Amino acid sequence: MQNVIKEIGDSYKKPAVVNVKSGDTVRVHQKIREGSKERVQVFQGLVIRTDRKNSHTSRITVRRISSGVGVEKSFLLHSPLVVKVEVTKRSKVRRNYLSYMRSRTGKSARMTGVDFDREAVNSVHDAELEAEEAKLREENAKEAAAKAEEKAKEEAELAAKAAEVEARHKQAS
């Protein structure tokens, strides 16, 4: 029974995910659907918690300060809505759950940075997601081209009407 559950869970896993640790500053690119439109929103902040690292339900909690108010968001790393996670800074920490960061502000909230190879950590390529992103960009470009064409057609009609009105005005004079 356990093997069956594990197989089902593994089928929902993404083939490759960035290795994120507590204390990392990350940029999470997330798909947002508004009505019929879809866009990618970026949430940048400090990872204060990582849960169930090797599971299909692995989760990170990211905290950032927005307009003086602390905002925390949890992201399922294997969710289809999470497009990309990139590590921008890595800090030295000795815990998995950095709950003490909630009470820190200003200089006391700074963490000691650690050198790391940013390209090696962030070089996770998922061909399926990249193809989907390219498809979204292509659809957006097609929509923009169709709108531009429609607008050009309307402007041409208005110019034709203006010329017709001007011609009638000259005939009346």
Could you characterize what this model shows?
The protein contains three helices and five strands, in the order αβββββαα. It is of the alpha+beta class. It has two domains: 2-124, SH3 type barrels (Roll); 126-173. Strands 4-3-2-1-5 form a five-stranded antiparallel β-sheet. Strand 3 (59-66) and strand 4 (69-76) form a beta hairpin. The relative contact order is 0.14.
Please outline the helices and strands.
Blueprint: H1 2-11, E1 25-34, E2 37-51, E3 59-66, E4 69-76, E5 82-89, H2 118-122, H3 127-172
Antiparallel strand pairs: 1-2, 1-5, 2-3, 3-4
Short description, anyone?
With 173 residues, the protein is α+β, with helices and mostly antiparallel strands.
Which key terms come to mind for this protein?
alpha+beta, SH3 type barrels, 173 residues
End-to-end C-alpha gap: 93 Å
Rg from Cα: 25 Å
Alpha-beta classification: alpha+beta
CATH second-level architecture of the largest domain:
Roll
Largest sheet: 5 strands, antiparallel
SSE topology string = HEEEEEHH
Beta-strand segment tally: 5
Low-confidence segments, given as residue ranges, are none
Q: What characteristic shape results from the CA principal axes?
A: elongated
What is the CATH domain class of the largest domain? Mainly Beta
Strand line-up across the major sheet? 4-3-2-1-5
Kindly report the average pLDDT value.
Answer: 88
Strand content: 25-35%
Write down the domain tally.
2
CATH topology-level name of the largest domain: SH3 type barrels
Number of helices: 3
Percent in helix: 25-40%
